[in-house]
Amino acid sequence: MNASSFKRGFFKKGSGDIDKKTYDSLEADQQEMIQGVVELSDTTVKEVMLPRIDTVFLSADASREELLTLISESGHSRFPVYKETIDNVVGVLYVKDVLKALVRNDPFEVEKLVRKPFFVPESKHIDELLKELRRRKVHIAVVVDEYGGVSGIVCMEDIIEEIIGDIQDEFDNETEDILDLGGGAWLCDARVNLEDLAEAIQVDLPIEGFDTLGGFVFDLFGKIPVKFEKAAWEGIDFIVQEMEGHKINTVKIVLRQEGNS
């Protein structure tokens, strides 16, 4: 039985245990992939999107030099483009379109290079989004919250990772998200889930209000921090270790010893 016929039988409404024998004979990673497909209908965009705080946005007023620097430093192939405020996304810039313009030696203007943005609500299920992305032949959507504000982006890769697991490319950080430095200190990727972090280092963190460490730390500072700037919360120091533009990349967490300020 090929993959297509198996999926038709497995997902057939009311099929129950149809092809259970075939399913049980599959390798563990194949079973996991099929389970990932099944769970797409129960997963919302909000659960898989890249949060606004971690998204690299591009101003429509950016110069050629600023754009090329951003492309070089970020390693991304697509950027949401905004005018005046991030909540006003006017398009998506594809690096391949920039390269074509450079080859043709066209006059440079970001707004003339952007493609029309595709907006989706946080509540949309990703099985529906996958169909929409394929129908529109796009790989990225801008996510909006219930008030119409931009809350992040979601890419085809994010959905694929829900099916087959994380995809590492040449720009992904392959180091651990939470590195134990010993002595009550950790070096953390700012994108790490705050609840997972709290469990890993066994401290109470405000997991109800924030999804990621970066979002929490950004709120803690109340402004855009600078490298090595420190903020304290409930006897814990959060020290920014690495920044990328206005985005926090890594944070050092230090539990204060009694008697130390």
UniProtKB/TrEMBL annotation:
GO annotation, cellular component aspect: plasma membrane
Family: Belongs to the UPF0053 family.
Residue intervals of the CBS domain: 49-108, 113-170
SMART domains the UniProt entry points to: CBS, CorC_HlyC
UniProt-listed Gene3D superfamilies: 3.30.465.10, CBS-domain
UniProt-recorded name of the protein: Hemolysin C
Database matches in SUPFAM superfamilies: CBS-domain pair (SSF54631), FAD-binding/transporter-associated domain-like (SSF56176)
Subcellular location: Cell membrane
Species per Swiss-Prot/TrEMBL record: Leadbettera azotonutricia (strain ATCC BAA-888 / DSM 13862 / ZAS-9)
Keyword terms: CBS domain, Cell membrane, Membrane, Repeat
